[in-house]
Design brief:
Elements lengths: L3 H6 L1 H10 L5 H41 L3 H37 L19 E5 L27 H7 L3 E2 H7 L6 E2 L2 H19 L3 E3 L4 E3 H7 L11 E2 L4 E3 L4 H5 L6 E3 L5 E10 L18 E11 L4 H19 L3 E5 L11 E9 L4 E10 L3 H6 L2 E3 L6 E3 L1 E9 H11 L1 E2 L2 E3 L5 H4 L3 E2 L4
Parallel strand pairs: 4-9, 8-14
Antiparallel strand pairs: 1-11, 2-3, 5-7, 6-7, 9-10, 10-16, 11-12, 12-13, 13-16, 14-15, 17-18, 18-19
Amino acid sequence: MLTLKLITEETERVIAGLEKKHFAGAHQAIEEVIAVDKTRRQAQKELDQNLSDAKKLAAEIGMLMKQGKREEAEEVKAKVAALKETSKELENKKETAEQELTRLLCQIPNIPYDEVPEGTCADCNWVVKSNLKECVLGQDTVGNWDANPVVETAKLPHWELAKKYNLIDFDLGVKITGAGFPVYRGKGARLQRALIDFFLDEAQKSGYEEIMPPTVVNAASGYGTGQLPDKEGQMYHCEVDDLYLIPTAEVPVTNIYRDVILDEKDLPIKNCAYTQCFRREAGSYGKDVRGLNRLHEFSKIEIVRIDTPEHSAESHKEMLAHVEGLLQKLKLPYRILRLCGGDQSFTSAICYDFEVYSEAQKRWLEVSSVSNFDTYQANRLKCRVRRTATGKTELCHTLNGSALALPRIVASILENNQTPDGIRVPKVLVPYMGCEIINIEN
């Protein structure tokens, strides 16, 4: 969440940032925070004074008793008792203000960086990089395609290809669990495993330490990364134990550093993790959810960084380059978008989306979001860095990104690599798959 220091010292910038994110009632929200903080600080000031006065008076009681001034001592005792009662009231007032302050701050999103474009929705996002207009499948060299690649062989959508080659059984998933829980089988399951291993191996080469975290977390972890209280309706909740199925490995991995002070020399910290992810996707319907386009359970490799404020922008660039390199090695048509203020997530300060092109569906499919959260998550997590030169501590910056989410990558591979002989396996996946083509025979 935003820090009180930022809100009180740079109020106009915060309000402008919230308006850029199209947060309704920005002025009112910030004014309310400042007012409640003023009440909290005033209660703390009066409480401190009361406690100081009570301490001084208490010291007088002993002296008066020694001097035999019992009546005066009793009067002072009465004053001390009255101050203690007032202090209880002030303590309650302060705690109530603190709780209200936390509630209000949790409802305010992060503010975007200056380079984030203005806009209200996905149509306002900026395409900052894309591939060349023609993508010749099977080439060993990686090209740079334009925003609308021509993929002549991509005729069938992935759900038809999955059925044709017996790779994914959507109906069986409905039988076992429900819509949005596909069953991968045979070469389809092998392709999933190949992608997972490939992505993890590439992350390791880039210096990321692999983590195998739990896939259920407590409410404190959800709060730390901003899923709670903002997105509880999108998470699967195990009510008996008050635990949540993770929507992304970002949640457990970033929470490793909750309530931790890190040494400056150890930053940036680079972690990666493969997990299953669970999202209710409430309200999703229509063509956008067909096949692998939008699932309730899916596999994903996440990369997470904890960094110093002055180096986090460089870390963000490195993460973007890592994700782009994966798509280049898979030889998929892709583009990179810088999200506008109105399309950013609640917690991000800047975010880039990676999309792969589906010729069969005639649309772009998001496969990764790479975000810098500035101090927003770190403030919730109480994740700090101790500076080597001064010994002082300050909030870290947190970053994360998908590298990559599997469902739409699988969809794009199937659709963009279909040939009359079967599905051509990307060259980098052949060692993991053990075959160069997926067809009915194998």
